[in-house]
Structures are given as C-alpha cells and as structure tokens.
Amino acid sequence: MSEYNVKKLRRTHKGRIVAGVCSGIGEYAGIDANMVRIALAITTLFGGLGVGVYLIGWLLLPEEGRDTSIVQDLISKQQNRDTDWSGEQKQQH
C-alpha cells in the first residue's frame, strides 16, 4: 500500500521566532511566515484578536515531530491521573 504525502498543520522549528505558529501556518498555506505575522500584528492592534489567535494556535497545533498538541497532552495526562493502575475510574468525591 502506498503512503500519501499529507500536508499537516504543525508548529515548525524552521523559521520559528516564538512558538512556531506563524511559520507553521505560513508553511501549510504556502505563504511567507512574515505575512502571517503582519496579519496577526494588525489584528492585535485593532482589538487584540491576534494575541488570542496566536495562543489558541500554540495550544492546539502539535509541534513538528510530535503527534499531539499541548491541549491533547494535558487531557491525556488528566485521564491517566483519573484512572488507577487497574484501569478502573477513580471515585470522585
């Protein structure tokens, strides 16, 4: 069976300035990461939306070389903590 070359949205290491969100979006969309940075800066100046979008991207986009995002890691850690060693759910009080 042949493998398909699927383009995935990731936070990249190459071209990273802070967390790699803009460089990842730029690489995925096929545009310069600086254009994404400028767009986020403009949206930040006019209402602050750019900061929120960047934070959401940082939390939800997996880092290059990883399969899970920060949020997915936190959820699985919480689920593992709520399950004891036998695989049964712990009682919530």
TrEMBL record:
Keyword Disulfide bond: no
Keyword entries, A-Z: Cell membrane, Membrane, Transmembrane, Transmembrane helix
Coiled coil spans: none
Protein origin, superkingdom: Bacteria
Localization terms from the record: Cell membrane
Transmembrane parts of this sequence: 38-61
Keyword ATP-binding listed: no
Occurrences of domain Phage shock protein PspC N-terminal (ranges): 7-64
GO cellular component, one term: plasma membrane
InterPro entries xrefs: Phageshock_PspC_N, PspC
Membrane topology qualifier: Single-pass membrane protein
The protein, known as: PspC domain-containing protein
Organism lineage string: Bacteria, Bacillati, Actinomycetota, Actinomycetes, Streptosporangiales
